[in-house]
Amino acid sequence: MTWRFMARLTHLSAAAQRRLWRTLITVWAVLLLSAWAMLTVFTRLSEKAYEEAGQTYLSVAPLAAEVMDLRASRGQFENLAPLVAAEQAAGAAGVGGDRLRIVPGTGAQGQQSLRLHAVGLTLREAVELLRDLRLLAGLTTTSAGIYPTQGNEKRADMDLVLER
Predict the structure, then answer these.
(1) pLDDT tens digits, residue range 56-71?
(2) pTM
(3) How many distinct structural domains can be found in the chain?
(4) Which domain holds residue 65?
(5) Buried (b) or exposed (e) across 36-45, using 16+ Cβ within 10 A?
(6) How many CB atoms lie within 10 A of CB 88?
(7) Could you report the per-residue pLDDT of 39-98, keeping only the tens digit for each?
(8) 96 and 151 belong to one structural domain
């Protein structure tokens, strides 16, 4: 502000000075109220984002714990013979000996392989069997076939060729 502008303000009439001060106080109050309103809105948005992050954590934490457990038990049966390791992994997946047949064989490059045939698996059992064969027994699936069980469409038969 220049001196001339300040000099004009001091030479205003009393009514004009009151209007000026009322306007300045009103502008100041509106600025404070709008700043308070913006801070309130941003606070609510950050609280909502924090709650959503907490819900995400609650849904992801059990999965992360399961992954950590799987990593800790990784290779638990790798030191066993492949046939025994496959039987142990199938047992860990909940597939008993009455629904499981494992036959040793040879792979495409002459490597030792296993032919696994499981009967009447649920989706959960099939997924757990594949997971446990890979993680616990250290066996890789080179060939797989999944077919519906005769007489029960909700279950499946699985043929796998496994190699270490």
Answers:
(1) 999 999 988 887 877 7
(2) 0.56
(3) 2
(4) 3-72
(5) eeeeeeeeee
(6) 17
(7) 999 999 999 999 999 999 999 999 888 878 777 766 777 788 888 888 988 988 888 888
(8) yes
